[in-house]
């Protein structure tokens, strides 16, 4: 066998690895053909052939089990070795659901092969691997789909106060899920789960429909001026070219003014400048407002703020909490001045005590949101408080 640092040349007839060998390396077949075989009742049985572009020996490397078959070069072959650590690192960082599905398939393969060869001991080679977290995630995703179908998700409204008038000018829509068995599921958990799949699109449409219905009810109850309601939009939703059209269609269906629906985009998404610029142009042409959410959370870059025409900037609650310090107060003062210079309005998040609100009032901040102003509540509670 000729060996180099990156490739191995193996002559026809040579064994690449044998059954029960330790799984130290997998291979990518660059050229030639390899036969995979196992011994059944004392006789060699060919399981298949692999050619250029195929992976060889990867399953044992992935699940750290001894080789379950023998690989022999049918023709002269050139192989690229792949160290097991390369697989281990990628597998460790993979989505746990994908990892669990892969391990499930490997378990079935091992079991089928053990049955074929009469190796009863080998059938349980992968038993005991704990993938309970991944399977729980699969269950939760399935239950979230069912909750959507059964209208079990609740949309709550957190008030946003115009500081100068102390009037509730709008609300942020926040989704909640009271699971019949798990109880209250953390929004962080199920929203992240939805964002990992295309499920975030129907979740977003669900919230959109509920919010539009809420605006209709507020209008019917004589709420004037009609408050705006802000919706958070994720990266996957932004990739949907029909997103704004669907929003406008829902508004038009109920004869609602477009400026009563506001889109909130987190600061971490503005790196895709052309996409956000196009969305802003589309929203503004229809009369919809767009806010930059979580400003100052670590992705801060003044370039996008200067070049993207946001209507409002939402100051992250960390800055609000720092108002009691000289440095925090100075920084928020500078951000308020910058926001005004850009002809934007500013909403301070996380306002929890009167001193913070007073400081924001003196600095000229436009809006306040937080527990001092109000916690997320149902539409019925909003209507009862007038």
Number of strands: 18
Could you give the distance between the termini?
A: 84 Å
Q: Give the overall shape.
A: elongated
What's the tally of helices?
14
What is the name of the CATH superfamily of the largest domain?
Answer: EAL domain
Number of domains: 2
The low-confidence parts are: 1-5, 120-128
Topology, please?
Blueprint: E1 2-3, E2 8-10, E3 15-17, E4 25-31, E5 34-40, E6 43-50, E7 55-56, H1 58-63, E8 70-73, E9 77-83, H2 84-93, H3 96-117, H4 132-149, E10 153-162, E11 167-179, E12 183-185, H5 187-195, H6 200-220, E13 228-233, H7 235-238, H8 243-253, E14 261-266, H9 273-286, E15 289-295, H10 302-307, E16 312-315, H11 317-321, H12 326-341, E17 345-348, H13 354-363, E18 367-369, H14 379-384
Parallel strand pairs: 11-13, 13-14, 14-15, 15-16, 16-17, 17-18
Antiparallel strand pairs: 1-2, 2-9, 3-8, 4-7, 4-9, 5-6, 5-8, 10-11, 10-18, 11-12
Helix pairs in contact: 3-4, 6-8
Structure description:
- It holds the Pfam family EAL.
- This protein is α/β, with parallel strands linked by helices.
- It folds into 2 domains: about 90 residues, Jelly Rolls; about 240 residues, EAL domain (TIM Barrel), CATH 3.20.20.450.
- It is about 40% helix and about 25% strand.
- It is built from 14 helices and 18 strands.
- The strands form 3 sheets. The chain has an 8-stranded mixed barrel with strand order 10-11-13-14-15-16-17-18. A 5-stranded antiparallel beta sheet has the order 1-2-9-4-7. Strands 3-8-5-6 form a 4-stranded antiparallel beta sheet, with no helix packed on it.
- β14, α9 and β15 form a beta-alpha-beta unit.
- The longest helix is centred in the N-terminal third of the chain and has 22 residues.
- It is elongated and about 90 Å long.
């Amino acid at each position: 066998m000729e060996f180099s640092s990156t490739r191995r040349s193996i002559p026809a007839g040579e064994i690449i690895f044998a059954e029960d060998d330790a799984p130290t390396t997998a291979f990518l077949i660059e050229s030639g053909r390899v036969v995979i075989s196992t011994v059944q009742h004392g006789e060699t049985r060919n399981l298949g052939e692999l050619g250029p572009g195929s992976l060889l020996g990867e399953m044992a490397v992935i699940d750290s089990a001894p080789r379950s078959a023998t690989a022999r070069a049918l023709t002269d072959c050139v192989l690229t070795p792949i160290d097991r650590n390369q697989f281990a690192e990628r597998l460790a960082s993979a989505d746990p659901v994908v990892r669990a599905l892969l391990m499930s398939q490997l378990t079935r393969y091992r079991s089928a092969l053990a049955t074929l060869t009469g190796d009863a001991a080998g059938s349980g080679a992968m038993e005991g691997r704990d993938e309970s977290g991944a399977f729980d995630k699969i269950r939760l995703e399935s239950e979230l789909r069912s909750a959507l179908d059964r209208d079990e998700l609740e949309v709550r409204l957190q008030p946003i106060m115009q500081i100068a008038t102390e009037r509730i000018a709008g609300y942020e829509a926040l989704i909640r899920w009271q699971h019949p068995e798990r109880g209250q599921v953390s929004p962080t958990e199920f929203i992240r789960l939805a964002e990992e799949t295309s499920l975030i699109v129907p979740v977003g449409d669900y919230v959109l429909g509920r919010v539009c219905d809420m605006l209709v009810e507020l209008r019917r109850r004589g709420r004037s001026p009609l408050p705006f309601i802000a919706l958070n939009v994720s990266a996957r939703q932004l990739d949907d070219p029909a997103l704004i059209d669907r929003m406008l269609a829902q508004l038009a269906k109920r004869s609602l003014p477009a400026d009563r629906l506001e889109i909130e985009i987190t600061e971490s998404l503005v790196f895709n400048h052309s996409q956000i610029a196009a969305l802003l142009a589309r929203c503004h042409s229809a009369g919809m407002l767009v806010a930059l959410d979580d400003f100052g959370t670590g992705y801060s870059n003044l370039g996008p703020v200067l070049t993207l025409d946001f209507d409002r900037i939402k100051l992250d609650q960390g800055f609000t909490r720092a108002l009691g310090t000289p440095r925090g107060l100075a920084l928020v003062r500078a951000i308020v001045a910058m926001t005004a210079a850009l002809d934007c309005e500013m909403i301070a998040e996380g306002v929890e005590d009167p001193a913070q609100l007073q400081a924001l009032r003196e600095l000229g901040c436009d809006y306040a949101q937080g527990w001092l102003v109000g916690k997320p509540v149902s539409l019925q509670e909003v209507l009862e408080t007038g």
